[in-house]
Write a structure and sequence with these properties.
Layout lengths: L11 H7 L12 H24 L3 H5 L2 H11 L23 H23 L2 H5 L23 H7 L3 H14 L18 H25 L21
Helix pairs in contact: 2-5, 2-9
Length: about 240
């Protein structure tokens, strides 16, 4: 967390580029990237429209003391109960000068709490429940000699025992369960401004289109990658 940056790891296009995962020719079947970018763009479109509705120009944003205090809190050094979040790479570095800076910050937050969370959280049971695929821990001492003759028996003996495996299965099964409504289908209705409702409705239409496209993609994927279908993605962190 001390090195994590909102404008890099928290910004999907930049994160993919920095890790060399943005080139379709190099990695054509990276389903997370292909689906996540559709959703990231839809979220950014939604946030941009919302910000523009309430801040017609940059000057209006600069004069909003509440949102400026919030931006400062994001970058303020962590220091007990009086400290801030201590995030690095926050556009504006605590002082919002342009609407674009606010749009990027909020887009990153929504992305992290929805797309990023869904892609990390929901596959847990399928990945961890079969220990040889993704053991939650390994027993014994790892080989110290690269030329050592490691047999299949050695690998099996290093895997978790049955009680530990069952514990891992229980925990990951619970964590993989969806506990909130889908993205765009809010738990509590806070939006009553007719113009804002129109923006939300447009966002939901975009999500329906993306859901249809991902379902079509999954017809040709083996196995299908269903974790980023908007019907499955939660509104917020769901554990």
């Amino acid at each position: 967390f001390n090195s994590w940056r909102l404008d890099q790891e928290g910004t999907l296009p930049n994160d993919l580029k920095n890790r060399g995962l943005d080139d379709l020719n190099v990695l054509p079947c990276y389903h997370f990237r292909n689906d996540a970018l559709l959703l990231y763009e839809a979220i950014n479109k939604y946030i941009t429209a919302y910000v523009s509705l309430y801040y017609p120009n940059d000057e209006d944003l600069q004069q909003d003391t509440e949102v400026q205090s919030w931006a400062n809190e994001l970058v303020k050094e962590r220091n007990g109960s009086q400290g801030g979040v201590g995030l690095l790479g926050v556009p504006g570095n605590g002082k919002l000068e342009t609407r674009q800076q606010l749009e990027q910050i909020v887009t990153c937050i929504v992305y992290t709490c929805s797309i990023s969370h869904a892609s990390t959280n929901f596959p847990q049971y399928e990945e961890y429940a079969f220990p040889p695929n993704y053991p939650g821990l390994m027993r014994g001492r790892p080989p110290t000699d690269a030329s050592a003759d490691v047999q299949e028996r050695d690998i099996l003996e290093s895997l978790p025992d049955r009680p530990t495996t069952l514990d891992i299965m229980i925990v990951t099964k619970i964590l993989s369960a969806k506990g909130t409504k889908s993205i765009g289908d809010f738990e509590v209705q806070y939006v009553f401004d007719p113009k804002a409702r129109d923006i939300v409705d447009e966002f939901r239409k975009d999500l329906l289109k993306i859901s249809k496209k991902i379902k079509e993609r999954n017809l040709h994927r083996n196995p299908p990658y269903e974790y980023l279908d908007p019907e499955i993605i939660p509104n917020s962190i769901s554990i």
